[in-house]
Amino acid sequence: QVQLVESGGGLVQPGDSLRVSCTTTGGTFSNYAMGWFRQTPGKEREFVAAIGWSGVTTTYADFVKGRFTISRDNAKNTVYLQMNSLKPEDTAVYYCAKDRTFGREWSVGRLEYEYDTWGQGTQVTVSS
After folding, report:
1. Distance (Å, rounded) from C-alpha 92 to C-alpha 39?
2. What is the mean pLDDT of the chain?
3. How much is the pLDDT for 28?
4. Is there a contact between 51 and 57 (Cβ–Cβ < 8 Å)?
5. What's the rounded mean pLDDT across residues 74-91?
6. What whole-number distance in Å separates Cα of residue 124 and Cα of residue 11?
7. Hey, which residues does 7 pair with through a beta bridge?
8. Which pLDDT score, from 0 to 100, does residue 67 have?
9. Which helix (H) or strand (E) holds 12?
10. From CA 48, how far away is CA 110, in angstroms rounded?
11. Integer Cα distance of 113 and 115 in angstroms
12. The dihedral of CA 23, 51, 56, 104: what is its sign?
C-alpha cells in the first residue's frame, strides 16, 4: 500500500525560503508523476505544482511561478517543493499526491481527480 509522508513545514517570515518534502513508501514511486496542492481553512484545495515521472516536465500554478520549484529524487522516492520569496498568502497546509496514471511525463495533471494517493499534509505558515 502506497503511503506519502510530507515533512519540512513550519513558521517562516515573509521573504524567507522553505523546502517541503514528500517521501513515498510501500509502492513504485519512480513511474508516476507527483503533484503538490495546498489548502487553507474555508477554501478548496488548489493546485501548486506537478512533475513528470522522470522529472523532465514540470508545471506550476501562476501564483507560484518564479518562486517555487518542484523536483524529485527517484532514488530516494522523494519529491520536493522549494519555496522562495514566501508571502503570507502562501500560508496553507501543503499536500503531495501521486498521479493515478502510470508513466505520465508530458501532460502532468493539475486537477485533484488525476491523483489517487495523498499525504496527510504539512503546515506552512508565513507570518511576521
Report:
1. 5
2. 95
3. 80
4. yes
5. 97
6. 6
7. 21
8. 97
9. strand 10-12
10. 8
11. 5
12. positive
